[in-house]
């Protein structure tokens, strides 16, 4: 058995309805799936009914999954052990997406020339998601 693909699954900690349009604008993401807890679990608590249980975003040739988090309301701690790495064909697109995602976030390493060639940069967005950017052009 072989792994078909690996898809990052972002926990928006109850802010998915804010995060989705942010990623649409910053990354050009397109929503391909959006399911709310109330759609899948009609008897869930009223506070959960409109929370995003699962969303799929198409970002170029890649897919990113996103959710408001666990139905028990447990919050994920931002940052720390995983970064979503984005590899761009075009340096201008990398710069635009980096600038878009950095709004309200923290730039860890400015996007600039990498010693191995191309561009590299890192940031944590305003939702606590860590991102790395590369472009070979």
TrEMBL record:
InterPro entries attached to this UniProt entry: Glyas_Bleomycin-R_OHBP_Dase, Glyas_Fos-R_dOase_dom, PhnB-like
Pfam families named in the record: Glyoxalase (PF00903)
Record-linked CDD domains: PhnB_like
Highest rank taxon of the organism: Bacteria
Domain Glyoxalase/fosfomycin resistance/dioxygenase: 14-133
SUPFAM superfamilies: Glyoxalase/Bleomycin resistance protein/Dihydroxybiphenyl dioxygenase
Name recorded for this polypeptide: PhnB protein
Organism of origin: Vulgatibacter incomptus
């Amino acid at each position: 058995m072989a792994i078909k693909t690996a898809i990052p699954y972002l926990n928006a900690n109850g802010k998915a309805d804010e995060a989705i349009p942010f990623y649409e604008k910053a990354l050009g993401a397109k929503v391909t799936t959006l399911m709310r807890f109330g759609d899948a679990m009609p008897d869930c608590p009223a506070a959960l009914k409109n929370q995003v249980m699962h969303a799929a975003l198409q970002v170029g040739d890649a897919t990113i999954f996103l959710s408001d988090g666990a139905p028990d309301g447990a919050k994920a701690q931002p940052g720390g052990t995983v970064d979503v790495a984005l590899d761009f064909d075009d340096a201008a697109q990398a710069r635009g997406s980096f600038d878009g995602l950095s709004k309200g976030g923290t730039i860890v390493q400015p996007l600039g020339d990498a010693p191995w060639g191309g561009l590299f940069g890192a940031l944590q967005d305003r939702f606590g998601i860590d991102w790395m950017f590369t472009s070979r052009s």
